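Sharing a chain and its predicted structure for anyone who wants a worked example. Both blocks are below, sequence first, tokens second.
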Amino acid sequence: MVHTHNNNFEGLLEKHHLKKTGPRLKVLSMLSAKNVATSQPDLESVMSDIDRVTLYRILSAFEEKGIIHKVFDLNGTANYAMCSSGCGEDHHHDEHLHFNCTNCKNVYCLDELNLPPIKLPKGFKPEGFTLYATGLCPKCSKTA
């Protein structure tokens, strides 16, 4: 099963004209395995073989290419999640609800809840929209 994922990840890197390196494949594997957005410090803590600068460069390249998108948690820390297949280098399509759990502090991308079309006043040129909600995730609401 891991081999299949690696083939998919290699294809994704190839599609975006990025070299297929071990650290890049490992970051893709880690991010895709999680159901929550993940911060760089959290990734660093489980990937001791990838130094901070390399990880930062990988995350930046992935975000620039439309492979991952950045979402901020309640503390203002950047977290990263896999993009949908519709995202690309020129535009992210992450206009879905980002849910911040006030108890466990996890950030969830609720892809099924898209933002409605927003018409801005004349002269405004949006580069992206983000919608946040806060509260308790299903796991935390069960224990509350």
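Comments welcome. The chain has one domain: 2-143.
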